[in-house]
C-alpha cells in the first residue's frame, strides 16, 4: 500500500513539474513577443524604402502594360503558371521561373532553375542576386527596371 502511494506521489510531483515548466516557457515566449512588439513597429518605419518593378518591354500585352509599376513588399513569384503572383504568358518563361523578395530592406531576385534563365543587366544569373535601383531584369521577352 505504501508503494502505491509512493508511485502516485511521484507521478503527481512529475506532473506538477511538467505543468509549471510549460507555464514558465509559455509566459517567457509571451513576454518576448510583448517586449519585441516595439521592434516590429520600428522595422516598419525603416521599411519606408519601397521596392518595385517598372515594366519596360513585354510581349504579354494582355496582363502587363509598358510603364506600369509592380510594388514588391513581400515575396512575388513570377512564371507562366496561373498560381504565380505575376503571370507571364511567354513561351520562354518557365511555369515557376523566378521569385522577387525583400529581406532586411534589400531587394532580391532568385532564379528557380528556369529553362531559359533570368537576366540582370544583360548577364544570366544563377541562384539569388541582390538588386539595386535602375537594374534591368529580363525574364523571357519581358524587361523590368528596378525602382525604389
UniProtKB/TrEMBL annotation:
Top-level taxon of origin: Bacteria
Stored PROSITE patterns: FHA_DOMAIN
Ranges of residues in domain FHA: 76-125
Keywords: Membrane, Transmembrane, Transmembrane helix
Pfam families in the record: FHA
Coiled coil segments of this chain: none
Transmembrane portions of the chain: 6-27
Protein name: FHA domain protein
Species of origin: Clostridium cavendishii DSM 21758
Lineage, broadest ranks: Bacteria, Bacillati, Bacillota, Clostridia, Eubacteriales
Amino acid at each position: 500500500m505504501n508503494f502505491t502511494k509512493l508511485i502516485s506521489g511521484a507521478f503527481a510531483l512529475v506532473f506538477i513539474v511538467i505543468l509549471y515548466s510549460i507555464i514558465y516557457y509559455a509566459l517567457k515566449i509571451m513576454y518576448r513577443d510583448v517586449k519585441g512588439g516595439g521592434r516590429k513597429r520600428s522595422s516598419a518605419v525603416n521599411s519606408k524604402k519601397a521596392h518595385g518593378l517598372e515594366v519596360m518591354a513585354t510581349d504579354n500585352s494582355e496582363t502587363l502594360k509598358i510603364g506600369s509599376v509592380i510594388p514588391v513588399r513581400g515575396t512575388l513569384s513570377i512564371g507562366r503558371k496561373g498560381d504565380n503572383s505575376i503571370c507571364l504568358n511567354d513561351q520562354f518563361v518557365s511555369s515557376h521561373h523566378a521569385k522577387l523578395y525583400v529581406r532586411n530592406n534589400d531587394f532580391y531576385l532568385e532564379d528557380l532553375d528556369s529553362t531559359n534563365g533570368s537576366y540582370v543587366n544583360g548577364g544570366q544569373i544563377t541562384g539569388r542576386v541582390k538588386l539595386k535601383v535602375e537594374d534591368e531584369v529580363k525574364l523571357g521577352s519581358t524587361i523590368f527596371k528596378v525602382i525604389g
